Amino acid sequence: MKVSQKDSEKIVWDPMRSPSGNPLKIPGSQTRTLPKLMVWLILVVSVTYVVYTLKLVSTSRACNDEPFSTHHRLSTLISTNDSVKLALNRTGIEHIVFGIAASAKLWDQRKNYIKLWYKPKQMRGVVWLDNKVSTGNDDGLLPPIKISGNTSQFPYKNRQGHRSAIRISRIVSETLRLGLKNVRWFVMGDDDTVFITENLVRVLRKYDHNQYYYIGSLSESHLQNIYFSYGMAYGGGGFAISYPLAKALYKMQDRCIHRYPGLYGSDDRMQACMAELGVPLTKELGFHQYDVYGNLFGLLAAHPVAPLVSLHHLDVVEPIFPNVTRVQALQRLMIPMKLDSAGLLQQSICYDKAKTWTISVSWGFAVQIFRGVFSPREMEMPSRTFLNWYRRADYTAYAFNTRPVSRNPCQKPFVFYLTKAKLGESSNETVTEYIRHRVPYPSCKWKMPDPAKIDTVVVYKKPDPHLWDRSPRRNCCRVKEASKKGSMVVDVGVCREGEISGVN
Length: 504
What we know:
Blueprint: H1 5-10, H2 28-59, H3 70-88, E1 96-101, H4 107-117, E2 124-129, E3 145-147, H5 164-169, H6 171-176, E4 185-190, E5 194-195, H7 197-204, E6 214-216, H8 222-227, E7 239-242, H9 243-258, H10 266-277, E8 282-283, E9 292-294, H11 297-301, E10 310-311, H12 326-339, E11 347-352, E12 357-362, E13 366-371, H13 376-379, E14 386-388, E15 414-423, E16 430-436, E17 456-461, E18 476-480, E19 487-493
Helix pairs in contact: 9-10
Transmembrane segments: 37-54
Keywords: Membrane, Transmembrane, Transmembrane helix
Pfam families: DUF604 (PF04646)
């Protein structure tokens, strides 16, 4: 059917009409409300869509932007600057002040230990004496000397001790009173203590100097720890106190000392005051009290996996190298220390499979060769070359595991002591040379190569100043082919992927 233009203009859809063309019967309120609701709904959806789109566009990167945009480069620059600031803000030796407890009676002898490690142009410290002493021409190599304050007002009732313990316990507070600037840590030690200062700095860098920290270690003697405390830093081995904690200690220490007249020494008084302040000991294994007698060889040759920080009681034990004085022995130890302080005395364990030998390297100190195969678990335990603090050979007297010196003549180790240390000319490697200790060895009937045919062990090792920035792990060593008869060559370094200390 054809529809004329006039008719077509009449056919217009009216939503208010029924299909029959009659108007729909809807109440007046519904007729007005429904269009308004529809309009508001459309507006809300539209506004939401526009806001979301604008936000998305503003936070998105254009397709033609480089992978590292200006915004990204700025973030990287800020991050780099933060890293630089962090590096510049790291604790250094200039932030440490040493307080050294000394006695006028022993000063002429013990000041030589301090000269081994103290550098007047780089370090700050004070020697606190009980009386005045005469000075020598070379005493400019020592820290300034001061006389401790009068302590007669403090009670002391321990019959076995000496009241000088009160004087020594106040050294940190007296050093703080000097008003030195830019101090982060006060480090306490005795006049017969030798510090490896580079490792001391490495240890203290791990901690926030703005917080309360009391850092040190225990005695090697189990009985000493029982009598005094397993929560006490032994003062001879040295301990560190952060500046804020030293300030808090200064404010209350004299009152604290009055409360403990019956305590024996300075370090237990210090720990008693720390207990009142609520600060526990943070233990670091590299501080060594060395409450032992005899030969330290077993302890040094199996040093724990921790940086060597201090050595104490050097007048009590034998020289750490044979046939020299105590000071001369320590001077020799300082040679490899200057090449790679982080690796000093660190033990490595490996095997010569062809000869069925076990080799233990205590870098910068000694090398041992054993006939047969000893497990790493056994080798990392110190052998009992020393006596306990009560001069007894009692293996239950130590605060750590030890192993007996073997009675089997075939299992006696061949010991090679350090004689030379240098940095290789053509490579960035340390070259340390160890000569066999010439002592009688018992005869052995085992049918295997005799280590007595080895005169010299040469160890190659790259300096590793960032050793303690990584998780603790022993270095690995590998026996190399030696070109010279009577010589053994060993390479020491970071363990390779999958490498372990084992025969197979």
